[in-house]
Amino acid sequence: xxxxKSSLQIKFWQLLILSSVLITxxxxxRSLNVAFFIGEPxxxxxxxxxxxxxxxxxxxxxxxxxxxxxxxxxxxxxGGTACGLFLGLSPRTSIVLDPFIKSFNSMPRVIxxxxxxxxxxxxxxxxxxxxxxxxxxVVFFNVYQGVKxxxxxxxxxxxxxxxxxxxxLRTVYLPSATSWVFSSLHTSVGLAFVGAVVGEYLGxxxxxxxxxxxAEGTFDINTVFAGIVLLTVCAxxxxxxxxxxxxxxxxxxxxxxxxxxx
Amino acid sequence: MAALALEIRDIACKFPSSDGSGDFxxxxxxxxxxxxxxxxxxxxxxxxCGKSTILNVAAGLISPSAGSVKVFGKNLDGLNxxxxxxxxxxxxxxxxxxxxxxxxxxxxxxRSKLDSLSIARDWLKRVGLGGFxxxxxxxxxxxxxxxxxxxxxxxxxxxxxxxxxxxxxxDLQTRQLMENEVLGLCQPAKDEPGKAVLFITHDxxxxxxxxxxxxxxSAGPGSRPIGNFLIDLPKPRDVAEIKTHPKxxxxxxxxxxxxxxxxxxxxxxxxxxxxxx
Lengths: 262, 277
Prior knowledge:
The complex is a heterodimer of chains A (262) and B (277). Chain A has 262 residues and is mainly α. Chain A has helices at 5-28, 32-38, 41-54, 59-89, 91-106, 113-120, 124-148, 152-160, 165-202, 208-217, 221-249. Chain A has one domain (38-249): MetI-like fold (Orthogonal Bundle). Chain A is built from 11 helices and no strands. In chain A, helix 7 (124-148) runs antiparallel to helix 9 (165-202). Chain A starts with a helix and ends in a 13-residue tail after the last helix. Chain B is of the alpha/beta class and 277 residues long. Chain B has a 6-stranded mixed sheet with strand order 6-7-8-3-9-10, sandwiched between helices. Chain B has a 4-stranded antiparallel sheet with strand order 2-1-4-5, with helices on one face. Chain B folds into 2 domains: 6-82 and 163-276, Rossmann fold (3-Layer(aba) Sandwich), CATH 3.40.50.300; 89-157, no CATH class. Chain B is built from 7 helices and 10 strands. The longest helix of chain B is centred in the C-terminal third of the chain and has 31 residues, at 246-276. Helices cover 36% and strands 22% of the residues of chain B. Chain B is globular and about 55 Å long. In chain B, helix 2 (98-108) packs across helix 3, helix 2 runs parallel beside helix 4 and helix 3 packs across helix 4. Classes of the chains: A mainly alpha (262), B alpha/beta (277). Chain A binds chain B through residues 151, 153-154, 156-164, 167, 171-172, 175-176, 178-179, 251-254, 258, 260-262, and chain B through 59, 61, 79, 81, 83-85, 87, 89-97, 104-105, 107-109, 136-141, 152-153, 156.
């Protein structure tokens, strides 16, 4: 990649902000009273190094959290797309179900976590279930909207070209819904991750959320921060991965700086 | 004489009015129209006179409130499968490349992938877009997008072509190129049957230059054909050159005499509505 002068400047400022925050943190934590509340960056770093390279005991927890995230993301996206397509294409059913969907969506779903623990146990599936409830609705509403807003001209044109019902679904509704799914992917990956961690935090025996909960129980603020850093890095990498896949699959979408137009 | 491609008899179209009063808005009324199997007919009229409604009825996209439509002697029920429709707005799928867009109708017909690709490639070449197969619509100019649409419609070799102001969004030069292109492509080859074209436009120049017959619609609501003019200009034509033909202005004036009153009437009505609102 080539950095222009201005993008180098941006990088410089970003680094400056990051390092000044870290340095301030470090200086503030010289006082033991303060360090009790905000931890110490060097100990946080050593905890991370310990987890990742010395004891290497964090991978199993991280793996569990990521597995939950991926499962929830997959189930929620497929379910949301299917339901969105179905309800988008059958207006009558969608009118009947509308109040129920609205109430499920407005329900604070974190409250469901204990219920899911009772239903699915303390293993991964209760966390997956919680995260699915978060992901599902984001994808569902996007696909539903996408189906409703398919260009009527494209639809009539496809009909005149001889498309039957299933061909319309395959060549018009699905591709147009896909673009809406992709626009919600960044949000839904993030939510899947949040759902998994919160689920672990509320009751589990594995996962990064569990590690953080344990550390909190012993006022080990440094481990809590190490867990938060780890989760943040994971969330950023997931987001980057989605961005990468999106770029690969959505080549047809016009970009702002697209100058290929002739 | 061969069977008529389109036989529209006394159709009327009423729509529920948009203000929710339960009234009906009559877009067209007492419309009777014939289209020969190798005839190019243009419909002109003031804005809002239901020109597109007639086309949608002929396509089978809407069924008329009254009257009958026959396609090659058979009553039209559902979509008109003999017709290709070129819409006014952009109908290309943004997620498909130019080639894939042209393939669309062939795919729907269940042709093999290889077959449809080679037919589509051929048509893209015929509309002058060889080498642009892999471009997505957003990478093409407005005129090129229209060419892709044209190839998409013609690739199915419809016997009837319906066109709803297809070039109204294009600049004048591009437009004349496209018009000539359409005339050339609709021209029958030696032992091929000709194509029936129903072309809607608000541009009288375009209508006269391209067609065998021009139909003038009255101002809406309840508009109907009020003029039928045969255009006996020599063929094949070049839309730019034909305008210098001495007869062109004679015909133009004849039609304009009829059209002008309707345009003024439609304008007065619109002004009245604006004043009310």
